[in-house]
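Single Protein Entry

Contents — chain, fold
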Amino acid sequence: MSDAYWDAFFVLHRDLPREGPGEPADVEWACRVARLQQDARICDAACGPGADIPALLQAAPDGHIDAMDKTAQFVDQARAAHGANPRVSLSVSDMAGITGPYDMIWCAGALYFLGVSEGLRRWRAALAPGGAVVFSEPCWFTEDRPAAAAQLWAEYPAMTDADGIARQVEAAGYSTVATRRLSQTAWENYYAPLDTRIAALRPDAQGALARVLDEAEAEAASWRAHRDAFGYLLSVVTPDDI
């Protein structure tokens, strides 16, 4: 992608509350399933603007969160909201290089950049004894894959169904403890603010910005039309050698 495209992308995404679907209930469920302790050390991998940090802090009221993202603009936004909290450390870092040890690695909608199996293998050494990885992954929910949805995910040919994700987890030497589909509320938490921003930018949008707005509108429309066919699956997984 050109510099103009990425400049336009950040015009659209600057200061949005989330960079992907999610809700506090997802964090609460995952931490309960993982039996997270109150003093847990957590890594928020690819944290974006830090939307999940408050729920993670609530889940581990005596714990600490290391939140990281490769995109400086998102880390700056997270730092503005949470940087004064001594229980939160923020850095511009690559999630591929996590060292730990962590009681939980939380990764909302970003593990696919590494690949599920490869990412889990990389992170094994960063888990403390008894630790868990929690990640949300694009997932087909039906065998019927509408053309618009298939086109949306064409650049991610590894996208599979729940059984396929479980096999990728197993291939990395982990077991799936539990899974949960992200809700409509979780998706609208991302798309509704995006809709508002698109409407505000649309009247003057040209060139790269117009393209970015078109793509974002098409993505939201595809999910809303075909939400029964695909979404995100949230998985809690643990290494087999714990």
Observations:
- The two ends are 42 Å apart (CA to CA).
- The chain has one domain: 19-186+228-239.
- The beta strands are 41-45, 64-69, 88-92, 102-107, 127-140, 160-161, 174-181, 230-239.
